[in-house]
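Practice problem: HAD family phosphatase
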Amino acid sequence: MNIVFDFGGVLFHWHPASFLARLWPQRAADEQAGAALAQDFFQNYSGDWGAFDQGLIDAPTVIARISARTGWPAEEVRQVVEAVPDELQARPATVALIEDLKAHGHRLFYLSNMPEPYADHLERSYPLHDWFDAGVFSGRVKLSKPGREVFELAQQRFGLPAEQLLFLDDHPANIEAARALGWQALLFSDADSVRPELQALGLI
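Answer key — structure tokens:
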């Protein structure tokens, strides 16, 4: 099988509510308040942040746009944008799952909504070329999930038919988009929860 991993929330830790509560204690007294801030900051990965994800604007521009839209000082917004790479720490259980899947002979790929500066950071910091045969970062191809086009591009780059791809992602909209194109897909919460599903498919 050919298994395609999302990155944020799957391979790499990403929890915006707790992230903003830690980074902006002056604005978010707890995780619940951090979740509300995250809605305004990241706009469910559409709007300003979606354009950054797609590589349509750079970091200074997304900082300026978020500051103008929300009224938050640009320096505070910059603090968040610059802190994201260090927040993207590999999840050990998912790394172990990757190693198990590779040991069972499966080919692994990735499809990630990721601004180009963060993609560069991950490539410098982790052995992506050892873990994966190939992958697609949204910021480099100017397309993002759940848009149909980025799945079609990924399928073309991987050189595989849809029915031979199994996608792991933590967002239901992305799972639905993959399935609509004929991919197999599993909604991911954590590695321990998805293992039984992979075992049921005879993959590990």
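Discussion: Residues 116 and 140 are 6 Å apart (CA to CA). Students who identified this feature from the tokens alone can consider the problem solved.
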